[in-house]
Amino acid sequence: MAILAVGSIAFDTIKTPYGKKERVLGGSATHFSLAASFFTEVRVVGVVGSDFTAEHEAVMTTRGVRTEGIQRANGKTFHWSGEYGENLSEAKTHLTELNVFEEFKPRIPKEFLDSEVLFLANIDPVLQRGVREQMPKVKLVGGDTMNFWIGGKRKELGETLKGIDILLINDGEGKLLASDPSLPRAANKILTMGPKAVVIKHGEYGATLFFKEGAFGLESGHPFRAPALPIEEVFDPTGAGDSFAGGFMGYIASQPKITREVLKRAMFYGGVMGSFAVERFGTERIQVLTRDEIENRFQVFQELTRLE
Amino acid sequence: MAILAVGSIAFDTIKTPYGKKERVLGGSATHFSLAASFFTEVRVVGVVGSDFTAEHEAVMTTRGVRTEGIQRANGKTFHWSGEYGENLSEAKTHLTELNVFEEFKPRIPKEFLDSEVLFLANIDPVLQRGVREQMPKVKLVGGDTMNFWIGGKRKELGETLKGIDILLINDGEGKLLASDPSLPRAANKILTMGPKAVVIKHGEYGATLFFKEGAFGLESGHPFRAPALPIEEVFDPTGAGDSFAGGFMGYIASQPKITREVLKRAMFYGGVMGSFAVERFGTERIQVLTRDEIENRFQVFQELTRLE
Fold this sequence. Notes:
UDP-N-acetylmuramoyl-L-alanine:D-glutamate ligase; homodimer; 13 strands; alpha/beta; 11 helices; four-stranded mixed sheet
């Protein structure tokens, strides 16, 4: 099944203990689409300015991502600048220049309307809902959000969540959204807000999938945990979460049916894609990645937790 | 193989969001021994005061723990009082009354000297080393420590680590000991300090075992991760780490040989015992636990991460 991804396309200026890079290609839709492109056809919708060149677009088209949905606007592309300290778990933002992204109104090209899977990357929940409503026949909707929207547009986000099947968020966002300091309780509260499943990402500790009894026709409501790879040298964590989402949704979209086993494997592929994303700056690592490397690392992930 | 456990025996006054309990039986040696007792013979060495009654001792002897090594001293038993807030990950200490524990000099009873496995629970590293030297023929030594000793007795701890085969510590302790904010790097640094293997406990996220290439005759040096159970109601986290260590060391001691598979299963049994420990206050849950319940939960842990 083809995935339609809607989100931000950006330039990131990133400083980490391993160096600094100016204006590398980034954004939630970019990282998601590149990661998902290893598993299925991906179509992207976003907005860029006149500084977005053919070379930037080629990063996506080289991976087979369909870019007809990238809207061109007068002005500059969204630019984020930030820095990661020694622990690499949280970025300190230096600068957020929304530029053309401030007026982003996602328009779905006609030829993308038959996409069977939709991923609403982290943008204003009102825009997410607008996209969802343009895609009434979609079979599966994944979504992301962040503290900024949970705090600032809680009510609108609540409406949007009713149209999302699988929500992917991190620990802090999950606790904030559910107003509960216990992750398992928070996850179960979120499952009453609309999503049938929620993936809580724990950064270097992996991720947990919680799902409703009966969701996707599955009997057992037990959660499922996937590990993360212990990585000594995390060069740049930017985009790790979006790459996880890309691997997760991409693998699901590549399968004929959602089963418990498919969801489990999707969690592992999510972890695998996140682990590659952090090995170099921006999209550098994913651009040169091969499917063989993905399968090899999938085996390493399995070996990390498998009992004979 | 029989395990000799040396550590603290205490009374804990614990407040959590679920209630408050006064002077319940606790201490690192107590929690460790009870958890390990489901897997192998356990012998305990510690010190208590006159307030430690036959009833308290029966908690251990009922589980088959051999208590001849419990030293009786004039005065009161070590008493700790603390409180856990909503997140339950860190205790706020209200009171630490060392009492008879302040002058604790571990003496190993003659009949315990043939113990093949030794566990040095969290006490002064100088005392740990003294015990280690009394047991020259021991086949496997596990150990624990805490920030207090890492900060205050780093040099002495360094000497003690040379006699420990497997160190079990949590994230914060590992980073502090290695002076490195990256957990995988910290673990690998610790493996240059003496231990052949280090188990880093991540609380609600599980634990990771790192080991030296060639340790225990194992070829592969890849780490191994075990999940923790997502638990909605953590009644009391006190003793969870010691119970993890008890399950981990107890399972290893029950096996004829250390293999990669034994270490992996030990990690799961550690997680299982930790997950039971937090279900009620103090030792309450472990006291009524059955081996069948342990095996059932082991299956749940496997199901959490297993791919078909």
